[in-house]
Amino acid sequence: MDFMLMSFLLCPFFITITSGQDTVCSRPELGANIAVDGLQKYFNPGAMLALSCEQGHTAVLGPRTIVCTASGHWTKSRLMCIPKLCPPPDHLANGEVYYENTVYQSLINYTCHEGYILTGAVSGVCQANGTWSTRVPECKPVSCGLAPIPQFGMIIYDKTIRGNTTQYGITGTYKCLPPYAVVGSARAECTASGTWTETPKCQVVTCPPPGNIDNGYKSSDIQRQYDYMEAVKYGCHGDYVLEGSLQIVCEKNGNWSEMPSCKRPCSVGIQRGRILYRGEKVWIENLKPKKVLHKEIVSLYCKDQFRNCGHAVTTQCVDGTLIIPGCFEEPSSVSYTLHSHELPSEIEPC
Known about the structure:
The chain is mainly β and 350 residues long. The protein folds into five domains: 2-82, Complement Module, domain 1 (Ribbon); 95-141, Ribbon (Complement Module, domain 1); 143-204, Complement Module, domain 1 (Ribbon); 206-263, Complement Module, domain 1 (Ribbon); 266-342, Complement Module, domain 1. The protein has helices at 2-21, 333-338; strands at 25-26, 34-35, 42-43, 48-50, 52-53, 57-60, 65-67, 80-83, 95-99, 107-112, 116-119, 123-125, 138-141, 143-145, 153-157, 165-167, 171-176, 180-183, 187-189, 201-204, 206-207, 216-218, 226-227, 231-236, 241-243, 247-249, 261-263, 266-267, 274-277, 280-283, 291-292, 297-304, 309-316. A four-stranded antiparallel sheet has the order 30-29-32-33, with no helix packed on it.
């Protein structure tokens, strides 16, 4: 009896609570990155909630408050919270910057090219205030000391060097004082490891007495050994033309540079006619001697029978050989003597 009485007395209480919850608002379900203060779960009609954006996000649209209605529902809001943006990162000289996005909490990483050392943070993150957590670092070049100098040698840097240090990528050229010559690579470079490339040696180099050239002469006939970088000059006799360098030089491998040669002049192999030589028309009998030098150009005249006009065809002297153009026809002695005005060289040019 006591149990039933207690149940009867408690029933109206549960009914009242249940019917009261039908008109309250539950804690609202909000869009991504939208927040409200406090931990309260239920709100009476008329209650107003202020909406805000979570850290690192910016509010757009609105309104930024919602109200619990008598039906137990919240008023609508189009509020959106979008991630804040960080500015594009600055360029990293002599390095690379890696990132996929610049929105809040995006990561950024820095690396340096070969031969450079990173000074500063290797990574950063886009912060809630729209700035990167770290400054762009620096990529400083690896340092080397001055290049080692071989005995009897020197190095000529490609750039002006100040102080006793050099940086990655600095290059230079080794030279030796004659009669010494560079044995090994003459080029040097400060490498990514902070050391110079292998230093060559300076060794005495000599060349044997140089030979003669056909139809030519040399500046010295003394039979002796010649030191590295010593030179001997050559020339040609008469109408022969020197082809190649005027002098040869004793090289670091103990050999002479390439020898020149003397090229023969050419005879113009016609008896009658007029040629174009050195910019002037010349009757062949007036060409004395009847020779042209190696590589000189001569033009002989041919006749266009169809158009009845003359045209010059060039040919070149090559070491004693001058090819007469196939279209050239040497006139007879009568035509040459009595009718020279009708020759291809004298009629209207094509």
